[in-house]
Fold this sequence. Notes:
Blueprint: H1 15-18, H2 47-52, H3 76-96, H4 102-125, H5 133-157, H6 161-175
Helix pairs in contact: 3-4
Amino acid sequence: MSNEDTPENADKEPKSMQGSSEEQPPEPREDATRPNPKLEPTEQDEPEEAARREPPPAADGHDGHSDHGLAHTMPVWMLVGVLGALMGLTILTVSVTNFDLGSEGNLVVAMVIATIKAALVVTFFMHLFWDKKFHLILFLTAVLFVILFLSMSITDRGEYQHNIDLYQNTTSAAAK
């Protein structure tokens, strides 16, 4: 009877299965989700199969339509319509300056018109209309924070208005 067959060594692995005495790091495992180019057929192996194979999905956020070539080509009538709207809003911005709505009134009108123009540019020229809705939420969140910060700075101006008026009266009296 050999030494390995004795009952006191029954719970130990045989020396042939224990490996070397030095600990070696385990080999890295293959990621099953990553494509393995060694396993996929090439055009040389199967030319018909390679031609029928679809390209992998695009990682650019355009799910399901990555093969459209140019990015969302728009009809000319839509481009001309957006151009007309932007030009009309620019003319409106310039014409509103002829009316005195007060300092805050002119600012509010100018900001509303500028916001509409920015929304047209972002929606059509930057293709937000055709993009994921999450990007729309990010854009609207940024716009809301800008509105919040501007409204805070506008309300802060009223606190110092007395000092501004005093300074203007002092400088105008000294100039006379």
